[in-house]
Amino acid sequence: MEVLKERFKKKADEAATEIKGILKDHSNDVIGEVTLAQVYQGMRGITGLVSETSLLDAHEGIRFRGYSIPELQEKLPKAKGGSEPLPEGLFYLMLINELPSEEDANTITELLQRRSHVPNHVFDAIDALPIETHPMTMFVVGIMALQTESHFAKEYARGINKKDYWDPVFDDAMDLIARLPRIAAYIYRRKYKNNQHINPNGLLDWAGNFAHMLGFEDEGFMELMRLYMTIHADHEGGNVSAHTTHLVGSALSDPYLSFAAGMNGLAGPLHGLANQEVIKWIYELREKLNTEQPSKEQIAEYVKTTLSEGKVVPGYGHAVLRKTDPRFTAQMEFGKKHMPDDALVQTVWNIYETVPPILQSLGKIKNPWPNVDAHSGALLVHYGMMEYEYYTVLFGVSRALGVLASLCWDRALGQPIERPKSITTDLVKKWLNKEDNIWGD
Ligand code: HAX
């Protein structure tokens, strides 16, 4: 067994024993209560899931295995000459629950290189789609076509013992993470660069090689990809893409099926697609006002128009966060360091100064502050990646690191099929009328 797999299994066995002990003594302890508003309004704030890889605090933002983004930037291994963390290191941290050494991160880079072959039928499946197909649809089709390679699906068909599920799921997760940049780059080059594809460079790290296959050799863009792939990787378990991957995986659908399902959720405009919506919205604003640098007053007017048309301001608000997203701040710091005079980046910063008080004044929005998607597009445009419909694919490649590490943990801990209870309004009315025995069996 390879070293990484052995280390994971050891950690997972220890954690499983610990959880068993906790449940033995505390199974009936109550950790929350559920209100009718939560039942009707998106289960907001209901604690009902365990996801080991990261934890979100409403005010502080995300921590990956206890580490904030600035801490990751300081403590994770870097590429030679670079100053942003290697996403391979974050993956190691999420999977093994220990900070990786440089050697640990390099081991993952090599392991991913070895597993990165994508069979031709995957490219054929993508090629069968009309060129105008949205890149996220192409991405999901590519992942689904790759499902032919699932070790878990084959082992399950052969009758694998349930205590061994984690093993082929681990292999599928590693294979998928290794292959996704290839598929994603293929989609980009097919749709936007005349089908001129670029071979992988085995000397580069995972994110650097992805940048290379996309056609961006600029060291600044490679650094951006390392940061981008790190900060988008995970956001605890309840967000749509993570929760969907976990939910579908709980039916023992293999990691390809589960991750593709998660990506369909990421493709929604209230979730990952917001990164394309932000840039589209800024471009429409620039076009309407016929200026590359709208003033704060012009931005404020445009925000009011957006709201009056019954639309959301993309990139602002969050279901859990109640402060500026530290993923936004990390990108802002990157912008200050690499491109402080960029007109689009400055517009993003002016929007940041303009939007929150307007949203706050409406009184109903719980979080008027920017989320991760408010900033990412402007950095990509700076390096020449203009095709904003593609941006959510980048998010998806990164998100694989977190949700697939989590899926390994789900199977190693023997998490059961997910099946919460739903009710009808009729039942709610009976409950309010205090009728007996309403919850049934
Ligand atoms: N612009 C306008 N209205 C907004 C808003 C925004 N940015 N954010 C919230 N609202 C509205 C809601 O639509 C809701 O209106 P109604 O009562 O009329 O239905 C009201 O304010 C209360 O919503 P909330 O409780 O504050 O927010 P939710 O938890 O329901 O929704 C969302 C969280 C992120 C979906 C929401 O803030 C939103 O639509 N934001 C814009 C889209 C976006 O940026 N999405 C990306 C989120 C981060 C992410 O997942 N990235 O991938």
Automatic annotation (TrEMBL):
The keyword Acyltransferase applies. Pathway: Carbohydrate metabolism; tricarboxylic acid cycle; isocitrate from oxaloacetate: step 1/2. Its EC number is 2.3.3.16. It comes from the Bacteria. Gene3D superfamilies: Citrate Synthase, domain 1, Cytochrome P450-Terp, domain 2. GO terms for molecular function: citrate synthase activity. Keywords: Acyltransferase, Transferase. The keyword Amino-acid biosynthesis does not apply. Belongs to the citrate synthase family. This is citrate synthase (unknown stereospecificity). The lineage of its organism: Bacteria, Pseudomonadati, Bacteroidota, Chitinophagia, Chitinophagales.
